[in-house]
Amino acid sequence: MSADRSLVRLALVCLAVGALSSVWEFVALQPPSSPWHLAGYPIATARLSMHAFVTGLVTLALAPTDGRARRPLFALAALGALLSLGAHGFTAATAWRGVVLHDARGGSLALLSARLLGGALQLSAFAWGLRLRWNAPPTTPAA
């Protein structure tokens, strides 16, 4: 499996996470007495949804199209997405904000670190993918 297909699959997984978290946000907004209510924090699930959609779309847009395998690029993007979306998902499920440097509960700094490290890895992968796009040889239409 080439890195191009791997990046497209990663993008599709991120988009699916975004769609599922949108549904989660909708049912979390239902009143607790409703049979449709599902525990969750609507603002955090909305943030997860938006982050997953943006990650998926940027990953899809910047996937290299020259046909060469880019395993390190896929590894950076996948690890960054796993850390970042995992931290956002944990935040949505537990209401830990993941932006607090010091909290009375242990683990808030680890959650913030996971979000920041995931974001840094994603930014590195996206910058690398953009550089590959800019430096790609021009394609000529088939005659």
Question: How do the strands and helices of this protein lay out in sequence?
Answer:
Layout: H1 3-28, H2 42-62, H3 71-94, H4 108-135
Helix pairs in contact: 1-2, 1-3, 2-3, 2-4, 3-4
Given the C-alpha coordinates, what overall shape results? Answer: flat
**Uncertain stretches:** none
Computed Rg: 18 Å
- Specify the biggest β-sheet: none
Please tell me the total number of domains. 1
Order of helices and strands: HHHH
Question: Which secondary-structure class do the elements indicate?
Answer: mainly alpha
Mean pLDDT: 84
Approximately what portion of the residues adopt beta-strand conformation? under 5%
Q: Can you offer a commentary on this structure?
A:
The protein has helices at 3-28, 42-62, 71-94, 108-135. By secondary structure, the protein is mostly helical. It has one domain (3-135). Helix 2 (42-62) runs parallel beside helix 4 (108-135) and helix 3 packs antiparallel against helix 4.
